[in-house]
Structures are given as C-alpha cells and as structure tokens.
Amino acid sequence: MRVLGLDVGTKTIGVAVSDAFGWTAQGLETIHRDPNHQDQDFERLRTLIDEHEVEKVVVGLPKNMNGTIGERGQACEAFADAVSERLDIDVAMWDERLSTSAAQQTLLEADVSRKKRKKVIDKMAAVFILQGYLDRHQ
C-alpha cells in the first residue's frame, strides 16, 4: 500500500510517496500553489495518486510546541478534509512539529547551497512527515 505525504503551505505543497511496502518515503515534488486556481492543487494530487496507486494521504499538522493547534494547523486540517472529500481517499493527519527544521538541518549537513535548499525544503519536509507516519504504523 502506497501512502502520499504532504507538507501543506500557503505557497507550496511538498509531496513524498512511500514505497509499495510502506517502509520508506521518497520525495516526489513541490507543487507551487496559485490562490486564484486552487483546483489545480487537487488536479495535481489526483494525478499523483493515480500514477503511484496511492491508497492513503498523510497531511502534516503544524502544532504549536505546547500541542495546541493554531491558525496554520486549522488551515491544514481544512485542506485535509477537502482532499478526503474531493479525491475520495483516506486522509490522516500527522504531527509535523520540527519537520521543516529537521529537513533544513539535513540539507545543511549535506552542504546543499541556500538556493538549492529553498527549492527542495518542502519536499524534504514531506519526506520527514511521511517517514514518521510510516515508522509509527509499521
């Protein structure tokens, strides 16, 4: 069973996918969002779900450090609900606290330039979100 992981932001959506066994997460792409054409986000996700035969989507939930859910977290929950309804697929939320920081640190340790980090950080954060989910549910 393949699972798609999403790091949802206001400008981009980082996307990762699991292997067929649900053991490892690999970065796929970063979807650049246009607030005037939100349907494009769902069309691209539908294409990725079909191409990779995905059975579940995991959306990162940005909680505050004290565990509460703020404005950004509420927006991610609303996006997850829309994915579930519009794409008719099972969606789970996953606590993504520090996933972007972990992705940033990994890229820094790999000596990736600032310009290149900016291009892949969302995709890497999606990998951390999805891998955390997969590790917990194996």
From TrEMBL:
<dbReference type="GO" id="GO:0000967">
    <property type="term" value="P:rRNA 5'-end processing"/>
</dbReference>
<dbReference type="GO" id="GO:0005829">
    <property type="term" value="C:cytosol"/>
</dbReference>
<dbReference type="InterPro" id="IPR005227">
    <property type="entry name" value="YqgF"/>
</dbReference>
<dbReference type="InterPro" id="IPR037027">
    <property type="entry name" value="YqgF/RNaseH-like_dom_sf"/>
</dbReference>
<feature type="domain" description="YqgF/RNase H-like">
    <location>
        <begin position="1"/>
        <end position="103"/>
    </location>
</feature>
<comment type="similarity">
    <text>Belongs to the YqgF HJR family.</text>
</comment>
<keyword id="KW-0540">Nuclease</keyword>
<comment type="function">
    <text>Could be a nuclease involved in processing of the 5'-end of pre-16S rRNA.</text>
</comment>
<keyword id="KW-0378">Hydrolase</keyword>
<protein>
    <recommendedName>
        <fullName>Putative pre-16S rRNA nuclease</fullName>
        <ecNumber>3.1.-.-</ecNumber>
    </recommendedName>
</protein>
<dbReference type="Pfam" id="PF03652">
    <property type="entry name" value="RuvX"/>
</dbReference>
<keyword id="KW-0690">Ribosome biogenesis</keyword>
<dbReference type="InterPro" id="IPR006641">
    <property type="entry name" value="YqgF/RNaseH-like_dom"/>
</dbReference>
<dbReference type="GO" id="GO:0004518">
    <property type="term" value="F:nuclease activity"/>
</dbReference>
<keyword id="KW-0963">Cytoplasm</keyword>
<dbReference type="GO" id="GO:0016788">
    <property type="term" value="F:hydrolase activity, acting on ester bonds"/>
</dbReference>
<dbReference type="InterPro" id="IPR012337">
    <property type="entry name" value="RNaseH-like_sf"/>
</dbReference>
